[in-house]
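Training component of the fellowship. As part of building independent skills, the fellow (R.M.) carried out the full modelling exercise for a liganded target. The chosen ligand was magnesium ion. The inputs are recorded below so that the supervisory panel can assess the work.
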Amino acid sequence: MMLKADKVTKAYGGKRILQDASFHIGKGEFVSIMGTSGEGKSTFARIICGTVRPDTGSISFEGTPLWHTGTYHPASNYAIQLIPQQPFASLDPRQTITAALMEPLLFHKISRSRSEAQARAHELLSQMHLGPELFSRRPGELSGGQAQRALIARSLTLTPKLLIADEATSMLDVSSQTDIINIFRTLVEKEHISVLLISHDQPLVESVSQRIYQLSHGKLMEI
Ligand SMILES: Nc1ncnc2c1ncn2[C@@H]1O[C@H](COP(=O)(O)OP(=O)(O)O)[C@@H](O)[C@H]1O
Ligand SMILES: [Mg+2]
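Fellow's submitted model of the complex:
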């Protein structure tokens, strides 16, 4: 199993958000967590990504605990990437989208030269259906859907194994939403990346997921 959560519990100031939540996702699986607003979906995503500490329970990635004695140990090689709800908040407004992708490629020495990084950036942007006319644009010159696709392209620079999309399409119009969901589908089918889609949108979740969990009153149940 790629990611496995076992009996995770979390309370905020005495208010129980997650109660013995267990969950798993395998390689190349498209799994969703559904639930109405305020049920704790983002809290669960943040526990996986290390920004919220669970009270009890265990979470492991490829057999290695992510949380151990209260400390988060990130999966190696940035294997887990979060796609947030608000793409514009995660992109530098002064940077072109090509530069936004070249930065991690050069910083992590994935590309050996600026020209190689630029070529890889353009390749990833094209894969996300962002054409050459958009390569030099800054976030302010993009639609929400285009910005979200640029952000997905940026997360792919680090060849993640698991993408967590926390309401990543809920700010978008229906056609941009379909675009992004189709991109996730292709990543699952062609690259065997795992996608965890977190959404309150039941028809959307039911149309794309291989398995679905429902989060309700702190309980995470497979349906
Ligand atoms: N840092 C925090 N401190 C206190 N309460 C929080 C915090 N983060 C979230 N909550 C509360 O926990 C509940 C679940 O929040 P959240 O995980 O964001 O739900 P969802 O993503 O399903 O809408 C909400 O009632 C929210 O107000
Ligand atoms: Mg949320």
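The panel noted the following from the submitted structure. The mean pLDDT is 95. The pocket of adenosine-5'-diphosphate (ligand 1) is lined by residues 12, 17, 35, 37-43 (CB under 6 Å).
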